[in-house]
């Protein structure tokens, strides 16, 4: 969407493209499906963070779809899915116990770069934009609150990733148990 319509970046609040609209609709459907899958497969207790994230995404995306405003912000936030590719590769490599640690090491650094480029940078830019330019009432206040909560979650996930991949000695508590339990980014 951004590749084909880069002019969208000049109007985060009111920019519109059909591909961006369809992307947000499709992503909303994915979040709804994944939420129902977690609930119906009795994974709510172990996946409560994902349920919170999904509820925030669904409510924000539905408000964007209904009002037609801030579509570009949603498209920018969906850049996070690029970094999910490398997080998924990381998880698969850990689960499969690939005998070549070089592949995991390479993905570890690529994952870090992608995390900055496609997760932290867009999130930081949008938070700055919303705090500076968006009215803090109505939909703007709702979306700003969502962004700030997502900021906290993304930073928490980032700290887990750093502890797991770059500072593994910090992972264990004094009793030898994982500090965070069985979390996705650590396992």
3D shape? globular
Order of helices and strands: HHHHHH
Radius of gyration: 18 Å
Q: Provide a count of the helices.
A: 6
**How many E strands?**
0
Low-confidence stretches: 174-187
Assembly type of the shown chains? single chain
* Global structural class: mainly alpha
How many distinct domains?
A: 1
Distance between the termini: 33 Å
Q: How would you describe the overall organization of this protein?
A:
- The chain has 187 residues and is mainly α.
- The protein has one domain (19-162).
- It contains 6 helices and no strands.
- The radius of gyration is 18 Å and the shape is globular.
- The two termini are 33 Å apart.
- The model is unreliable at 174-187 (pLDDT under 50).
- It comes from Ploceus nigricollis.
- The chain crosses the membrane at residues 72-93, 113-131, 143-162.
- It is found in: Membrane.
- It is a multi-pass membrane protein.
- This is TLCD1 protein.
Summary keywords:
187 residues, mainly alpha, 68% helix
Q: Brief description of this entry?
A:
It is a multi-pass membrane protein. By secondary structure, the chain is mostly helical. The chain has six helices and no strands.
SSE order and pairing:
Layout (H helix, E strand, L loop, with lengths): L17 H23 L7 H20 L3 H7 L2 H17 L4 H33 L4 H28 L22
Helix pairs in contact: 1-2, 1-3, 2-6, 4-5, 5-6
């Amino acid at each position: 969407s951004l590749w084909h319509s880069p002019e969208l970046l000049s109007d985060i609040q009111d920019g519109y493209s059909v591909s961006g609209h369809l992307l947000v609709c499709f992503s909303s459907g994915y979040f709804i499906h994944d939420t129902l899958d977690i609930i119906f497969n009795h994974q709510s207790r172990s996946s409560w963070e994902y349920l919170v994230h999904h509820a925030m995404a669904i409510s924000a995306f539905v408000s964007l779809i209904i009002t037609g405003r801030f579509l570009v912000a949603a498209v920018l936030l969906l850049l996070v899915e690029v970094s999910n590719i490398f997080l998924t590769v990381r998880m698969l490599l850990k689960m499969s116990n690939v005998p070549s640690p070089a592949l995991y090491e390479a993905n570890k650094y690529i994952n870090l770069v992608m995390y900055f480029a496609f997760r932290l940078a867009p999130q930081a830019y949008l938070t700055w934009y919303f705090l500076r330019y968006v009215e803090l009432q109505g939909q703007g206040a709702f979306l700003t609150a969502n962004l700030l909560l997502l900021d906290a979650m993304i930073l928490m996930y980032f700290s887990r990733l750093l502890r797991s991949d770059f500072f593994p000695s910090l992972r264990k508590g004094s009793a030898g148990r994982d500090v965070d339990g069985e979390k996705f980014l650590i396992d």
